[in-house]
Amino acid sequence: MGSATVSLKKWGSSLGVVIPAELVEEEKLEEKEKVIIEVKKISTLSDVFGSLKEWKADAQKLKDEARRGW
Asked: Which range marks the domain in which residue 40 is found?
């Protein structure tokens, strides 16, 4: 099973992807053939930043825990 990182493109009111030629050759894919696509969004730092606002851990306590080995 091959995989590739691709960008979404607007096609009418939908989003689509282009399967790279290398993956098409590797998997011997043909036009009109049905495939299963697994979608995983790649998170950026700006997506993650600020997501733990409720987490009130003290920095010193975190360092102490890390030194103890959790």
From this structure: 9-68
